[in-house]
Amino acid sequence: MQPKLGAMLLCMSLVYVAQARAAVLPDSCGDDKVKFDVATKKNQPAPAGPLAGNAQIVLIETLDGCVTCGTVTTRFGMDGAWVGANKGSSYFTLDTAQGEHHLCTDWQSDFDFLKQKVGLISFTAEAGKVYYFEAKVAIVTHQNGPGPDSNLETDRTLAFAQLSDDDGKYRVKVSKLSKSKSQ
After folding, report:
1. Is 129 helix (H, G, I), strand (E, B) or coil?
2. How many C-alpha atoms does 180 have within 13 Å on its Cβ side?
3. DSSP string covering 10-75, please?
4. Which three-class secondary structure state does DSSP give residue 150?
5. What are phi and psi of 114, to 5 degrees?
6. Which H or E run contains 81?
7. How far apart are CA 183 and CA 33, in angstroms?
8. Cα torsion angle, 62, 57, 106, 75, sign
């Protein structure tokens, strides 16, 4: 009976840790319980630009160093709420009011070690302008040590940066358009 009690206590502590994780997301993100289903489409026309009086944000996910990572999903938050997600090399757009905004991205996952990958950016939007932001996901596997005693290690990183207009337009051109829906 002692092993069952130990297992139950372990499970309860893991639930507590998962709940504590939700409380430590930055303010610019959203509720950690929100998950997205994402569908992508190839060969879509370039975004039309912002609505009158607004700015447009283009949120892009790119994959680096990984051929089979098309299932990586990154969520994007703005000013405390999740606004959408990308899956694989994809993008979506969001119109917003001018003024200061706080962006967040993270790796949507049930694994805690991946949830710790968070990117943050603040910027001031001006009406009529388009802003490009990239969440670059890198998954690189390498051999640790020589010979038969070596093992494979995988490094997973998430970098979040604002792109120049030229780089942003290019990334959109070579990416799929994503449509996300919260579960």
Report:
1. coil
2. 28
3. HHHHHHHHHHHHHHTS-TTS--TT--EEEEEESSPPPP--PPTTEEEEEEEEEEES-SS-TT-EEE
4. coil
5. -85, -30
6. strand 81-87
7. 9
8. negative
Residue from 175, 73, 84, 80 nearest 117 by CA: 73
The amino acid sitting at 32 is: D
Give the Cα separation of 46 and 177 in Å (integer): 9
Answer for the pair 51, 93: CB distance below 8 angstroms, yes or no: no
Domain residue ranges in the chain: 26-182
At 45, list the tokens: 């026309």
The answer on pLDDT for 152 being more than 90 is no
At 83, which amino acid appears? V
- pLDDT band at residue 84 using 50, 70 and 90 as cut-offs: very high
Handedness of CA 36, 72, 174, 59 (dihedral sign): positive
Question: What amino acid occupies position 63?
Answer: L
Asked if the model's pLDDT at residue 2 lies above 60, the reply is no
Q: Which of 13, 88, 99, 18 is nearest to 54 (CA)?
A: 99
Sheet (strand 118-125) strand order: 81-87, 73-78, 99-107, 118-125
Mean pLDDT of 65-78: 77
